[in-house]
Design brief:
Keywords: Cell outer membrane, Membrane, Signal. With 504 residues, the chain is mainly alpha-helical. It is built from 19 helices and six strands.
Length: 504
């Protein structure tokens, strides 16, 4: 068996308590007696509950495409008629607090954190007597909690910190913590995961579980995000200059010899090559109408394309709001580069045989591997790849005055796999970030990279001037735009508990 972690299990509803009725209370609802202590009776109950925490990753690919890729210079989707939430994201709209994408992301992440906290609060030697298993469960839950909080701090800046279940009344007394305080919990959780999780799993049934290397890769990403210049006073970049700490984690992954680049870029995303040697951590999906397929794939292609190519219950982006891959990123690819042809679909015919001129992300789409509907794509989603490890190391070396020959070698290793045999010499920081842009197009990293690098405002301002033919994107992009609006339903929970982020 494969892909253990996204199975919907009815009992998870018992574990997580009364979720829907308490979303306005930060999803930290009190746990019913049947849903907590009475549920955790044996080791299998904790494995079931842990699967419920992993299930929270379902929305990860969608969140990062909509809030990172669409926000960046990789995607141009101003909207032509109706206004979708992702059009407002693309357009740097300053009235985002009432949108469903803001509230769904915030509530979803806190729901996931509640699940992790409930599991951790009930985990004990009395029930899980096997110490190795108990420690591994704790490590996995803490890895996931760290990942959810890292998303929150990158999207919203200051957020409330809950490291254990609380009642709604208790939640009403807990305000937003400063960003360094949020990072303290994230780093502590990841350090625990590094120390207590195995480097790999030998059973296919465990593929997709967090490992010590996954935690190292995420911790490196955390250190690098913190190290970026502090452009926004409450944003995720703090100017901490922890490049050396990041390098320590990245070198441990590289020196393990457990990972490598696959020979062909397309093979990373092949439906018959999942869990390959390039994957440090990914999100597992199934197909076959079991309710655990990858809905994220349909967030890229146009609805008309889906219908004309036989995708059942096609879904896709709306006719008035295509998510067009930008001309700027397409022009950045070298003629020898294989990544643009594989990653981007250029033009298609609709059901009437009319040519539609558009460009969209297709690296996750295989028309020979369709599920029963648009929610049912099987392909796993990569969160951390080995090429990311290599390019993060090049970035950290560049930022810390590292050896230029080593920087060049790391970047050229990734470029060579992409088909570019002419090496770069004296690779600059800007060139590293552009290489990341091409390597990870459509993977939800670009906006985070721009914020971390301190390049977001200048890059997007220049891009809007060149790309925005519809004149719908804000022309006064500034530091306030580096994080998103606190959802209106959270501001309304209790007057004065939270303050809106500046600019919204």
């Amino acid at each position: 068996m494969k892909k253990f972690n996204l199975l919907y299990i009815v009992l998870i509803g018992l574990v997580t308590g009364t979720i829907s009725s308490c979303e306005s209370k930060l999803d930290q609802s009190p746990i019913s007696s049947l849903g907590s202590n009475a549920f955790y009776q044996n080791e299998e109950d904790f494995i079931t509950a842990l699967s419920g925490v992993y299930n929270g990753l379902n929305a990860y690919p969608i969140n990062h495409f909509e809030l990172s890729e669409v926000r960046s210079d990789n995607i141009y989707t101003p909207g032509t008629a109706g206004v979708r939430d992702y059009n407002l994201i693309n357009n740097f709209n300053r009235n985002l607090e009432a949108t469903s994408i803001m509230s769904d992301t915030w509530n979803g992440l806190y729901n996931n954190i509640m699940r992790a906290n409930t599991l951790l609060a009930n985990l004990s030697a009395d029930v899980v007597q096997d110490e190795d298993l108990r420690t591994r469960i704790e490590g996995e839950a803490k890895f996931l909690r760290a990942l959810f909080y890292f998303d929150l701090v990158r999207f919203y800046g200051k957020v409330p910190v809950f490291d254990q279940p609380v009642t709604p009344l208790e939640a009403l007394e807990i305000g937003r913590s400063e960003v360094p305080v949020v990072y303290d919990l994230i780093i502590s959780d990841l350090e625990f995961a590094i120390t207590n999780l195995p480097p790999n799993y030998t059973s296919a049934a465990d593929f997709g579980r967090a490992t010590s290397h996954a935690a190292r890769g995420m911790l490196a990403r955390v250190y690098m995000t913190r190290s970026g210049p502090q452009v926004h006073p409450a944003g995720p970049a703090l100017g901490t200059n922890e490049w050396g700490e990041a390098l320590e984690q990245l070198d441990a992954i590289i020196d393990s010899d457990q990972f490598d680049l696959v020979d062909n870029y397309a093979d990373i995303f092949a439906y018959d090559n999942e869990n390959n040697e390039e994957i440090v951590f990914d999100i597992q999906f199934l197909s076959g109408g079991q309710g655990v397929g990858g809905e994220y794939v349909q967030y890229h292609y146009p609805e008309a394309f889906g219908r004309s190519n036989g995708i059942p219950f096609a879904g896709g982006t709306f006719p008035d709001a295509p998510k067009t891959v930008s001309a700027d990123v397409m022009d950045s690819f070298n003629d020898a580069d294989v990544r643009d042809d594989f990653s981007v679909w250029v033009n298609y015919f609709d059901t009437n045989g009319n040519l539609v001129q558009d460009r969209f992300i297709k690296k996750y789409l295989d028309l020979d591997n369709l599920g029963v509907d648009r929610f049912d794509f099987e392909l796993n989603f990569p969160v951390i790849r080995y090429s990311d490890i290599l390019l993060m190391k090049a970035e950290a070396l560049s930022q810390s005055g590292g050896n230029q020959l080593e920087i060049d070698a790391l970047v050229n290793q990734v470029r060579n796999r992409a088909g570019i045999t002419l090496p770069l010499i004296g690779v600059s920081y800007e060139q590293i970030m552009e290489e990341r842009r091409r390597e990870f197009i459509g993977e939800g990293l670009r906006w985070h990279d721009l914020v971390r690098s301190g390049m977001a405002i200048d890059t997007m301002t220049e891009w809007v001037e060149e790309e925005d033919d519809a004149n719908k994107i804000a022309t006064d992009i500034n530091s306030d735009d580096l994080i998103y609006a606190v959802p209106l339903n959270q501001l309304d929970v209790k007057e004065g508990l939270y303050q809106q982020n500046p600019g919204y």
